[in-house]
């Protein structure tokens, strides 16, 4: 990790232990400059990658990453921590939902990226270099500008059984109520897991808002995970979480107006109605039903819906 970061520094002096370095990671062949903070601890230990703002409209995670970068001190750290805050500054400044402004792609759907691809693919490619150099990856997300959610964590099942289990147990230490497994290959944590780095994607906050209370909760959750890796000192807190097998996302088959029929954390049974899309005259265009028994983890809250947009996701019990 140190070698990779060294490439983005103007001076050639090697990064010393017990130091904090800030700067920008230039994504080759693009105008993108990702703000980063690299903390080289006072003793050897694990190498941790934390990203916030893969999606530009998810504010609590971005502020959490910024505050962690400011507050973590190398003198109390064993190992190294790279924080990117945010990964997608142009999407953040443009207040974009899901997508990036340069190519209209969802950054979390193009991992592991391409060195010679579009801007989003090149960002993913750069982040993937850091993922490969890390021992663990924390990807901080939240509900987007138009999404409501109950806090939950997704871990990738694509790694070895041991690393997948490490990711599952670390996910639970965030203390968010639900932990769900994923086999998605083109998301950030899937690409990391396939490259041998366990990790999770955390979801906290929603609907284009943020508060200091949410950021405090998010920071405390991340610090608890860092304690479990002995990267920072202190006692690890354990809380009761519900482990779920997988998440089923229902996507829109038509554009129009979206009317959910369920609420967050509602337990639904297979076949239960999740909502419907109507046209501008109030005529029902499509109805959506749960594909399995589960619990509603997120819901799109905007009236506006485009075809292929997510509508809702349910976590399915093990
Ligand atoms: Zn996100």
Q: How many angstroms separate the termini?
A: 36 Å
Whole-number radius of gyration? 19 Å
**Structural classification:** alpha/beta
β content, as a range? 25-35%
The share of residues in helices is 10-25%
Instruction: Please identify the top-level CATH class of the largest domain.
Output: Alpha Beta
Q: Please tally the β strands and state the result.
A: 17
Tell the overall outline: globular
Largest sheet composition: 13 strands, mixed
Parts with pLDDT < 50 across at least 5 consecutive residues = none
InterPro entries: AstE_AspA_cat (IPR055438), N-alpha-Ac-DABA-like (IPR043795), N-alpha-Ac-DABA_deacetylase (IPR053138)
Keywords: Hydrolase, Metal-binding, Zinc
Protein name: Succinylglutamate desuccinylase/aspartoacylase family protein
Domain Succinylglutamate desuccinylase/Aspartoacylase catalytic: 44-227
């Amino acid at each position: 990790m140190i070698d990779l970061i060294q490439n983005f520094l103007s001076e050639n002096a090697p990064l010393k232990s017990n130091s904090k370095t800030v700067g920008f990671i230039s994504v080759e062949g693009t105008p993108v400059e990702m703000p980063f903070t690299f903390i080289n601890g006072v003793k050897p230990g694990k190498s941790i990658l934390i990203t916030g703002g893969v999606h530009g409209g998810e504010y609590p995670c971005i502020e959490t990453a910024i505050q962690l970068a400011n507050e973590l001190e190398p003198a109390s750290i064993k190992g190294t921590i790279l924080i990117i805050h945010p990964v997608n500054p142009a999407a953040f400044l443009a207040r974009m939902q899901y997508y990036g402004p340069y190519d209209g792609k969802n950054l979390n759907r193009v991992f592991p990226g391409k060195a010679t691809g579009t801007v989003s693919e090149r960002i993913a490619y750069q982040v993937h270099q850091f993922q490969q150099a890390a021992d663990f990856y924390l990807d901080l997300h939240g509900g987007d500008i138009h999404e409501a959610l109950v806090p939950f964590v997704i871990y990738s099942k694509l790694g070895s059984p041991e690393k997948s289990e490490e990711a599952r147990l670390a996910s639970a230490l965030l203390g968010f109520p639900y932990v769900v497994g994923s086999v998605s290959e083109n998301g950030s944590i899937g690409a990391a897991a396939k490259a041998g780095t366990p990790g999770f994607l955390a979801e906290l906050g929603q609907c284009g808002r943020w508060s200091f209370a949410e950021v405090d909760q998010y920071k405390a959750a991340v610090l608890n995970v860092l304690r479990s890796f002995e990267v920072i000192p202190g006692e690890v807190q354990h809380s009761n979480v519900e482990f779920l097998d997988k998440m089923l996302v229902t996507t829109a088959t038509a554009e129009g107006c979206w009317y959910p029929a369920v609420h967050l954390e509602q337990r639904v049974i297979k076949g239960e109605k999740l909502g419907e899309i109507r046209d501008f005259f109030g005529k029902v265009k499509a109805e959506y039903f749960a594909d399995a028994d589960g619990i509603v983890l997120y819901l799109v809250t905007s009236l506006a819906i485009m075809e292929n947009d997510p509508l809702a996701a349910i976590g399915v019990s093990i």
